[in-house]
Amino acid sequence: GFDLNQDGLIDREEFAFCWNRWIKVIVRPNSALLVIDVQNDFISGTLNLSQCSAKQNGLQVIEPINKLLDTVNFNAVFYSLDWHPSNHVSFIDNIKLRKIHHTSTIQPEDAQTYDTVVFDGDTPIRQRLWPRHCVQDSWGAELHKDLKVVDNAIKVYKGTDPEVDSYSVFWDNKKLKGTSLAKQLEAKKVTDVYVCGLAYDVCVGASAIDAITIGYRTILIEDCCRGVDMDDMERTRNTILENYGSCVQSDEVSPPC
Ligand code: VGL
Ligand code: ZN
Hints:
By secondary structure, the protein is of the alpha/beta class. The protein has helices spanning 12-27, 40-43, 62-71, 181-187, 200-214, 230-242; strands at residues 31-36, 76-82, 116-119, 125-128, 154-158, 192-198, 217-226, 246-248. It is built from 6 helices and 8 strands; from the N terminus they run αβααββββαβαβαβ. The two termini are 29 Å apart. Pyrazine-2-carboxylic acid binds next to α5.
């Protein structure tokens, strides 16, 4: 409930907060779709989802995403690209270059692809080790050729710092640096953020959770996503739902009125 002042009225500042945060959002919704990392490497390249534990086929997101773009009038559409330099910290073949923290149970010489290790640094950080993927300007980093790219598409590049991975399209995994996305959403007065793409339990999930944290009404479109690991997908879904995000099917997404 509201705190009332001595005159029994709603505090002016509290009213302003509610007006900006909720009433405007209902009266004038503005939607953005984030299409996360629909890149060759995750579909038929080096980080092919069909080789991960959930054995999913990344190609299957293209048809529902294209259909969504044809039928729903989003106010803005962003495409993120995982865009790594060759010496990126997440590549298993670069592990010999890195110092492992003493609390990590895995040593560099024993590390296997998909293991999680703890890297040393100012703040030790957990890092999953991936096959070399989405190297800047390579074929694997290109958006899949059949993905519809709308007019006025806005591309956002992430994971460009060799020293820190970046799952979310908002911030790197250490939350040190943001991309331009948050500012662009603000400039477009976006209230509702829809998220889809690859991979559900990695970059899609991290982006959705950051969108919720910033305060956007956040909707993950499940049939437009494929993931790495079934248990992680379930955990991602539960985290989103527990934080008042939504998980829906694309036929439940209706054009904003
Ligand atoms: C991703 C693993 C490593 C993703 C990016 O886009 O979900 N997954 N880098
Ligand atoms: Zn990556």
